[in-house]
Amino acid sequence: MLMNYHEPLFRPPSEGNSLIFQVTLGCSFNQCSFCAMYKTKQYTEKPLKEVLAEIDRMAFLGSRIEKVFLADGDALNLPTEHLLRILERLNARFPALRQIASYALPNNLKKKSAQELMALREAGLSLIYYGIETGSPDLLKRITKGATREVMIAGLNKASDAGLKISATVILGLGGKALWQDHIAGTVDLINQTRLDYLSTLQLFLHDSVQEEFITKFEKRGGVFVPQDDAGMLQEQYHLIAGIEPARSLEFRSNHASNALPLKGRLPDDRDELLKLVEAGQKGKIPLRPLYYRAM
Is residue 294 part of a domain? Predict the structure, then answer.
């Protein structure tokens, strides 16, 4: 067997054509109350020797491999020297590589120095996927994100300064009906203080295994969590798009399967057109994605 994946295996939608190497298993934080991705795994760092051997075994693909994704959810938690060895081997075995990507947690970017991030970029790491989720200080505590907005802003800008491209996500519906305005206002403010290359939205979907934990933690800080319906989600989407004033043009997407309304464009360039599409969805002039097609 060439690749010995430890299931479940997750990757961003845009990494569908990438060769995936699991360099870590699970997530070192693994406490976000909305996330069920790695609840069945204990965080483990795969031995460097094992990872390098897997890369060597796949070298027969040679110039056919243009993109590599480093899994699981926490590859950047590895020591920098460890990562540099992996990047070096990937470039040696796959000469046509044009992108190496991984997820990045807030604590990853907090711990890595600017020099370390620059070294990783120079060695071939080109794109990180980062879950902002929300910019609301209150909601960040309610969902046990494990980071403040200040930590996230500093980390994202440090990664951008190092030359890394950043693809960030926001979760619509995270504040429910009661806190949606705080959620969107805080998120817009955070985004406007960073330099993102890509931004996408998901709609909140709570797996059965985390639903009770999410609601308990949310309501511990007061109030009752009432989920947003599609009308509420579109209202959030509208105000998010309307409020973002990026430092530089960014690519915006809501094409993840969880979204009621798939969108694609650039901000601020295509803002008016995107808002018109959301309005059309709100008025029923264009169909929303059926519930049975939606999933996280």
Answer: no
Residue 294 has pLDDT above 70, yes or no: yes
Q: Please name the residue that has the structure tokens 């693994």.
A: 30
Residue 290 is assigned to a structural domain of this protein: no
* CATH, residue 183: 3.80.30.20
User: Rounded CA gap, 136 and 187, in Å?
Assistant: 6
In this predicted model, what pLDDT tens digit does every residue of 269-291 receive, in sequence order? 999 999 999 999 999 999 999 88
pLDDT at residue 290, rounded to an integer: 87
Quickly state the pLDDT bin for 82 (edges 50, 70, 90): very high
* DSSP strand pairing (165-172 vs 198-203): parallel
Is there a contact between 119 and 144 (Cβ–Cβ < 8 Å)?
no
One-letter amino acid at 274 equals: L
- Overall number of domains in the chain: 1
Domain that holds residue 228: 13-283
Mean pLDDT value of segment 117-123: 98
What is the reported pTM? 0.95
SS3 labels along 164-220: CEEEEEEEECCCCCCCHHHHHHHHHHHHCCCCCCEEEEEECCCCHHHHHHHHHHHHH
